[in-house]
Each structure stands twice: as C-alpha cells, then as structure tokens.
Model the fold of this input.
Amino acid sequence: MMPQSSLTCCPFVMFIVFVLLLISAAGFPVSDEAYPSSAFEHWIYGKSNLKGTSWNKWYANSGAWANLTGSSCGGKQQSPININPRSSVRKTFPKFRFHNYGNIDRMILMNNGHTAMYSLQRKFPKGRIPYITGGGLNGTYEFAQFHLHWGNDSTRGSEHIIASKSYPGELHLVHFNTKYGSFADATAHSDGLAVLGIFLKIGPGENPYFRPVVDQLGDVLQNHDETILTNLVSFKDLLPKQTTSFYRYSGSLTTPFCQQIVIWTVFDTPVEVSEKQMNKFRKLENLEGEHLVNNFRPSQKMHDRTVF
Ligand SMILES: *[C@@H]1O[C@H](CO)[C@@H](O)[C@H](O)[C@H]1NC(C)=O
Ligand SMILES: *[C@@H]1O[C@H](CO)[C@@H](O)[C@H](O)[C@H]1NC(C)=O
Ligand SMILES: *[C@@H]1O[C@H](CO)[C@@H](O)[C@H](O)[C@H]1NC(C)=O
Ligand SMILES: [Zn+2]
Done:
C-alpha cells in the first residue's frame, strides 16, 4: 500500500518509497491475509520457503505453516478459534462507530490464489477512506482490505466457529491502527490490526448488498486476475443488522506468517446471502486451476486467552 501522497510526485521518488517500504517491511513479513498489494505478495512467497509448495495443498498442509522460517503460526495467540459462548466472559464495550462506511467506488477485486480480496483504488481520496472507532478499540483503525473464506459446500467455510458450528463463509474487514502511521508499521504491534469477522449464512433470497461483491467474480476466475468493480460497495450494508453483540479476543492473521497482531471482533449475528451468491466464490480457481474452496484455517488452541 503506497502512501497517497507519493502518487503526486515523480516516478523516481515513488520507486524510492517502494524500496523503503520493502526494506521496512522486511523485518515483519506480512501475509496477503492482510496486505492489499500483489507486489508484496510476490515478494513474500519468493522469500519464504513455501516456494515449490503445491498451492492446492496450502490449506490441507496448514499444520506445517509453523515450520516456515520466521513464522508465528505455532504461537500461543493464534486464530481462528472455536468460540465457546458459555465460557466467554460477558463485557460491555462502547458502541462501534463506522466512518465513511457508505458507498465505495471502483474497488479493486483480486483473485490471489487463496481468496478474493477487495481493496481501495490507490488514488482513493484520503478523506473518504473508511475507518472505525469505538467497540472497545483504542484510537482509530483505517480500512485496508476485505476478503472472504468459504467452503466447497455450505456445511463448512468459516474460519471462526461458534460452539463447534461452522458457517458457509466468513467476511474479514481488515483495518490498521493509524497511530502507527502505515499498515506495514502497524504489523509490528500487538494492537496493530483490527479485523471484523462477519459470518455468512445461506438465506432464501439474494442479498442485494452483496451483488457488487459477487457479480464480477467471473472476471477473476484465475490466480492473479484483477478487475475494477463497476458498482459501488456499501460497507455498512455488508455488516450484520446487529453490531452491538460480538466476541472479542487477541489473535493472529490466519495465513502465514500468522503474526499475533490482530484484535478480533467476531459478530454474533450472521449476514444472509443466497446459495447462488456463495457458489460464485466456489467457481474461482487457484494457481493450479482447481476450484478455490475450503480456504479456511482450522481452529487453533486457546492457550491462555479469554474471549469476551
Ligand atoms: C515441522 O518440523 C519438524 C522438525 O523438522 C518436523 O519434525 C515436523 O514433522 C514438521 N511438521 C510438519 C507438520 O511438517
Ligand atoms: C486499550 O488501552 C488500555 C489502556 O492502555 C488497555 O488496557 C487495553 O488492553 C487496550 N485495548 C485494546 C483493545 O487495545
Ligand atoms: C468438500 O470438502 C471436504 C473436505 O475436503 C470433502 O471431504 C468433501 O468430500 C467435499 N465435498 C464435496 C461436495 O466436494
Ligand atoms: Zn481472513
């Protein structure tokens, strides 16, 4: 993600900024789970010893992620988890406030081989970038990207599970803590990212608010395909009706290197989409041309953590 201001200056300065970003990020490799740039993703996979790993085995072999050099995937604050409502601790948080969560134009949709990722245009006006406050978060968290996890059928798909029950899908809205200045810098801190997790459930009808999200999936069937959404995406209409009831815990990114930098909010209330809408995700392909499905990490151990 480039600083917005770099766009107005000469290519040489942009190049220097890019190199500096890579260098500054080198100490804290970030997975594409969180990072909106495909260039960065290439860099990560080039560097990591995942090279040569068959991509269709990516999730099937998620147990081996802990063995990657520099990986936190074997840590004690990993995500996702199986949330047990009975053993979570009741706590009252202030209300979430969603800012600029209205209509977002010309979002970039990318198939990165293991999810469909939606990010803002690089030239997106700074003053209109969505951000969140409240909800028990300290300070301001700015939107970076959203993406989804889904199954090969509706019996599985979500990353978080509630009392051992899976949902057919889970939407992740990824935000970074603005006090760290940039997304890359935020990833070095345990309160660096705030991810909102929204369960998708099959309803009787089409969800009109998801139309802009699913309608162009056919344009990005293959790995690294990218397109610009022609219709506006209304973030606030992707949220569940109820945003006051949620689970809160400290966890990690759910793809390598699984950095333990995420304040998780998992909303209790699911959002309904139709089976036909879910199927559009299931038609995407991974690098090997197979259906990109079951792109969820299995539940991780709780260790010494509390879910509120
Ligand atoms: C991780 O590495 C250790 C040590 O080399 C090995 O014993 C173990 O089988 C590896 N785990 C996986 C899941 O590949
Ligand atoms: C917010 O800040 C307080 C005080 O420093 C701290 O105890 C709490 O854990 C922080 N909460 C989050 C979600 O970062
Ligand atoms: C869905 O995936 C699971 C896990 O890989 C597999 O056992 C099952 O047979 C698949 N179902 C269909 C309908 O392909
Ligand atoms: Zn995710």
